[in-house]
Specification:
mainly beta, 40% strand
Length: 426
């Protein structure tokens, strides 16, 4: 899939230098303790998405902080810890040494099992609880927790956060409801990986996949049909069935409970900026907050104009959306994982706990008599089950004639593809 990003976490046994601000974990010494050099690398394809540029091409690939816990596979004790702060740098790759709490001389023939828990950019996971630190005790050769705080492997896997990162506006009026012409930068994102590793005396290189803890969605529009006139997404786009939390280590997360899903569609229209949205989260805002009753109020709905004409081709692997469709809003929408999928129902609209959107749009043209003609329509769009690290592109072709239905396609891919998704030893 075009434009997908690549992220990996490599742990390499030969020593590599480190010059970042970090918590000291002890020198290598000559006591035979295993020292592992961890290399965090984010690698992107050349070029950044249009409208989402940053100093490094994409903030979604930057590493600002790294925290690593290593547990002994035999007794569950903490056998390694490291924390690095890179908040004053824009880096996508960094290496540092971490000393493990056992000797290379004592590694059995079949290897020593360790469980690595790596967390990147924990500060971007709003609502995440404070994580404890540890130091290396040179007398015992083991790690000890500091400040009388510790964390277990189970507690790590149960870590949740309640706030999603948001793209940052870099150009345009933040108060304007019309998204046309606005530009955004992508956000620093939380990432994590848990991996069981068997370290042998011959171990030199191993690779761990580092995955984002959130999903990502982008919307693309085009106008179709035989009608002439202007198409506006001026009444808003709203997202429903949003989980109240996400897991930092989502691959090991428990099933999402129905009670943990918010923004359910209701009959109450007074909770946001449009009486039509009924408790959804606005992705595009409504231009006028009530039912328009005169030309001036109708004119306020003439925002988010769609100018691209559909080319009568369904999106394929070569379609990135930037040329064939109109990216609106021009930013990423980050999502908590939601394993459910909703279905359309002719009687009730949509049923289920999965994500779906309501698209409120209208067309404007002059009638045969010369009078202005306004036609309003509403479309429901269901999304696939969203996994962490998934990138969903939604393509919508909205007809101007009002007789044919809106066409919807998804392009769903793994947002991060790792060249070696497993563990390899050289």
């Amino acid at each position: 899939m075009n434009g997908l990003k690549y992220i990996c976490l490599a742990c390499i046994i030969p020593f590599l230098p480190s010059c970042i601000q970090e918590e000291h974990t002890g020198d290598a010494g000559d006591d035979g303790r295993v020292t592992v050099s961890l290399t965090f690398t984010t690698r992107t394809e050349e070029g950044a998405d249009e409208g989402m540029e940053s100093d490094e091409g994409n903030n979604e690939n930057l590493i600002r902080t790294v925290r690593v816990y290593v547990f002994d596979g035999s007794d569950g004790s903490l056998t390694g810890y490291h924390h690095a702060d890179l908040s004053d740098k824009n880096v996508t790759e960094k290496s540092f040494n971490i000393r493990l709490g056992f000797s290379r001389h004592t590694i059995p023939a079949d290897g020593h099992t360790c469980l690595f828990y790596a967390i990147a950019n924990e500060g971007s996971a709003e609502g995440l609880k404070s994580l404890p630190a540890a130091v290396y005790d040179s007398e015992t050769g083991r790690y000890v927790w500091t400040d009388d705080k510790e964390i277990t492997q189970r507690e790590l896997l149960e870590l949740t956060f309640s706030g999603l990162p948001e793209s940052k506006l870099t150009e345009g009026d933040p108060a304007a409801k019309d998204e046309t012409g606005k530009k955004y930068s992508s956000s620093i994102l939380p990432m994590a990986v848990k991996q069981e590793v068997v370290i042998t005396k011959e171990t030199e290189n191993l690779t761990l996949p580092l995955r984002r803890s959130v999903g990502k969605m982008e919307l693309y529009f085009a106008k179709g049909g035989i009608g002439e006139g202007d198409l506006y997404i001026g009444r808003g786009v709203y997202l429903y069935n949003i989980p109240t939390k996400g897991y930092l280590f989502p691959q090991d997360a428990p099933a999402l409970e129905s009670s943990e899903i918010a923004h359910r569609e209701s009959d109450k229209g007074d909770t946001s900026d449009s009486p039509y949205q009924k408790n959804g989260l606005p992705i595009l805002r409504c231009g006028f907050e009530d039912t328009p009753s005169n030309p001036d109020e109708i004119a306020q709905l003439h925002i988010n104009k769609i100018t691209r004409r559909w080319n009568n081709k369904a999106p394929d692997d070569n379609t990135d959306g930037k040329k064939e469709y109109q990216w609106l809003p021009g930013r990423a929408v980050y999502l908590f994982a939601n394993p459910y999928k909703s279905d359309k129902n002719a009687a009730s609209g949509v049923e289920g706990d999965g994500y779906y959107m309501k698209i409120l749009h209208h067309s404007h043209e002059n009638s045969d008599t010369g009078a202005d003609k306004e036609e309003s329509h509403m479309d429901y769009v269901t999304l696939p089950a969203v996994k962490p690290n998934m990138f969903v592109k939604v393509f919508l072709v909205i007809p101007l004639d009002g007789y044919t239905a809106t066409r919807t396609w998804w392009k769903v891919g793994d947002w991060t593809e790792v060249e070696n998704p497993g563990i390899s030893f050289d």
